UniProtKB/TrEMBL annotation:
Organism: Hanseniaspora valbyensis NRRL Y-1626
Family annotation (InterPro entries): E3_Ub_ligase_DUF913 (IPR010314)
UniProt xrefs under Pfam families: DUF913 (PF06025)
Name listed for the protein in its UniProt record: DUF913 domain-containing protein
Region feature (Disordered): 1-20
């Protein structure tokens, strides 16, 4: 791999992008000064292992690092000829169009003139498409994954807009057959696009070729497949995953995992032969697939030189799925066939995630209003599958640790978050989440989250923050389903867990309550759950602790000047409580609000005002807002 000459962050053109960049010079140059690319990436990987304790950075600060990583992507992509689009079939007349088989149902969207892009037109140079069917060397794959994982780490710990020009080199890696690389690439594209949702729809990262590939991924593994003949059986992705990850049951019959192989085997891929001007079928029997590695199957396609390159991306996906479900028998025993089940899970896990992150990417593109209805028509259970998987979180007692659905659940939750931002799908999601069929599962999930936060065991903060963010987006629909009081009661019980220090999760809960507390039934539920007493006592306790331990955050490197000594997550939580406090006293005129306003809470508010150096300006402004409301209400 070609070594790249690093540039330092004190480049004036880079500094001008953000005034805070100069404070990060030492940190960024500690990476960029390393001339060896592998040492550079290795040091980034080490940095990624540390807990991020400061506030999220502005992503612009990290542009110099992202640019160098992007240059590494460009080097690898050029070396292995990865920068390719799905080519059109050579023949393109009406008869050929009618003859085409194995076509993508989304093609008419991405091939329309409305979204045509002259940049896709190839020049006279011969383009090689072998990358669709060629696995990269193992050390190169590992290097790529290390880079992708660091970019994901940054995207999850930074804010502001998308940075497509500093990561567009990743596009070529969507073409490689390695599903973990495909997944990492798709996560980067989806997370970056979600940051610019509704304002960045024309990003190069969302060009029609990327969306075409995403549509192939989404439609290759359906959430449910009906039985069409007596020889085929229906399949349900949620049920299969749930059973696949389950602990063995006591009853032998309960341990049977039925493999939906008839959806994929024997392998049959119909394509339009340009040479013979007709439809032909490429077939492989189950035995061949079992006895061949995935790489061997890809090589077989290349060597035969029969199937046009137009189909290679789709074919690589379908061969991968066939390899997953080509098991030694069509029924595996959860206990006796543990090794084969683990192999199946390890192959299926990244692809299921890939599917749902692709769904999320759809929502962030300029094509969402055309694509989402087609997706729901082709994959009728996609909303339901996302909902069911999302609501199974915190069910670790029912699954084997090595077969955890945790990462898959993160992907379905991300898809629901993106879908909930779209007017065309938000009502469907509200109905999926809060109707009678789902409500019981939602309540049980909230109970499981409460138990985890109470015991401090198996806490999934990433899930908590994302899930409560989704609930906040959907909270306007609580009243439509007459569940407001129940949900508020459950959420308040989570908020008031004694000594819980998962501040990120608690902050997310407080934001939902803040959004709903103006309803009378919400106030009553909040009071009945102990919310009023909690607000007073928790604020008193947290503030006293911070004053008694002013150096608790000593040693944390912020790189920019901060106005508080309290850890970022804790000060954010306290600010959230203060916002909820002010909202309650503003909208509640009943006698119960007086339980908040005794001498102890007023004394606590005064302590915050007197210790600005500890609590900072944000919390101080929240307290001043509370005082202003009290003065206006003349309480």
């Amino acid at each position: 791999m070609a070594e790249l000459r690093p540039y330092k962050v004190n480049n004036p053109s880079k500094d001008s992008e953000n005034e805070n960049t100069k404070f990060y010079t030492g940190l960024l140059n500690s990476f960029l000064d390393l001339e060896d690319d592998h040492e550079f990436v290795s040091k980034l990987k080490d940095y990624q292992q540390r807990e991020w304790v400061r506030a999220p950075d502005d992503i612009i600060i990290w542009i110099p690092v992202l640019d160098r990583l992007n240059a590494l992507f460009a080097c690898i992509a050029e070396k292995h000829h990865l920068n390719i689009n799905i080519p059109d079939l050579k023949e393109n007349n009406d008869n050929t169009s009618l003859s085409r088989t194995n076509s993508n149902v989304y093609d008419h969207i991405f091939d329309s003139n409305e979204f045509s892009d002259d940049s896709d037109v190839e020049d006279d140079m011969e383009v090689l498409y072998d990358a669709f069917l060629t696995l990269l060397p193992k050390d190169t794959e590992t290097f790529i994954l290390d880079i992708i994982n660091f970019i994901l780490f940054l995207l999850e710990n930074t804010t502001k807009t998308s940075v497509d020009s500093s990561i567009d080199g990743i596009l070529g890696f969507l073409n490689v057959p390695n599903m973990k690389i495909k997944l990492g690439c798709m996560k980067v594209l989806a997370l970056d696009a979600s940051r610019g949702l509704k304002t960045y729809a024309y990003s190069r990262l969302l060009e029609k070729d990327v969306m075409k590939k995403s549509s192939i991924i989404v439609s290759s593994l359906l959430c449910s497949t009906p039985s069409n003949t007596e020889e085929t059986t229906s399949s349900d992705l949620f049920e299969f995953l749930n059973k696949l990850s389950s602990n063995p049951f006591d009853l032998p019959k309960g341990n049977e995992l039925i493999i939906p192989e008839n959806n994929f085997l024997p392998f049959s891929f119909e394509y339009y032969s340009e040479e013979n001007d007709c439809s032909e079928i490429f077939k492989l029997n189950k035995e061949t697939i079992i006895n061949s590695s995935y790489n061997d199957l890809l090589l077989l396609v290349k060597q035969q030189k029969l199937i046009p390159e137009h189909y290679w991306f789709k074919l690589s996906i379908e061969l991968y799925l066939a390899k997953i479900f080509a098991t030694s028998k069509n029924k595996l025993n959860l206990k006796d066939d543990a090794v084969e089940i683990k192999t199946l899970f390890d192959l299926l896990n990244p692809f299921v995630q890939l599917k749902f992150y692709s769904v999320g990417l759809f929502c962030c593109s300029n094509y969402f209003d055309a694509v989402i209805p087609i997706m729901c028509e082709v994959d009728k259970s996609v909303f339901d599958c996302c909902r069911r998987l999302t609501l199974t979180a915190y069910s670790s007692e029912n699954e084997r640790e090595e077969l955890s659905l945790k990462e898959i659940i993160h992907s379905t939750l991300f898809a629901l978050e993106c879908l909930s931002e779209l007017p065309i799908s938000v009502d469907d999601i509200n109905e999926q989440m809060f109707d009678q069929n789902s409500y019981g599962y939602l309540v049980m999930l909230l109970d499981r989250i409460k138990i985890a936060l109470t015991t401090g065991k198996n806490i999934d903060t990433k899930y908590n923050v994302q899930f409560f963010s989704l609930l906040k987006t959907l909270s306007y629909g609580f009243s439509d389903f007459s569940i407001t009081s129940d949900i508020i009661y459950k959420l308040t019980k989570i908020l008031i867990i004694p000594d819980c220090e998962d501040y990120a999760a608690l902050l997310s809960v407080s934001k939902i309550l803040d959004a709903c507390i103006d309803l009378e039934e919400s106030k009553t539920a909040f009071e009945n759950a102990g919310g009023y007493t909690f607000l007073k006592n928790r604020l008193n306790k947290e503030i006293d602790f911070c004053i008694d331990n002013p150096n608790i955050n000593a040693g944390v490197e912020y790189y920019t000047k901060v106005s508080h000594t309290v850890p970022f997550k804790q000060i954010s939580f306290l600010s959230g409580l203060a916002s909820l406090f002010s909202k309650i006293i503003e909208v509640d005129s009943s006698d119960r609000v007086n339980t908040l306003l005794d001498s102890s809470i007023l004394n606590t508010l005064n302590k915050i005002l007197l210790n600005r150096n500890i609590f900072g300006l944000t919390l101080l402004s929240k307290v001043l807002n509370i005082i202003q409301i009290l003065l206006n209400k003349d309480i």
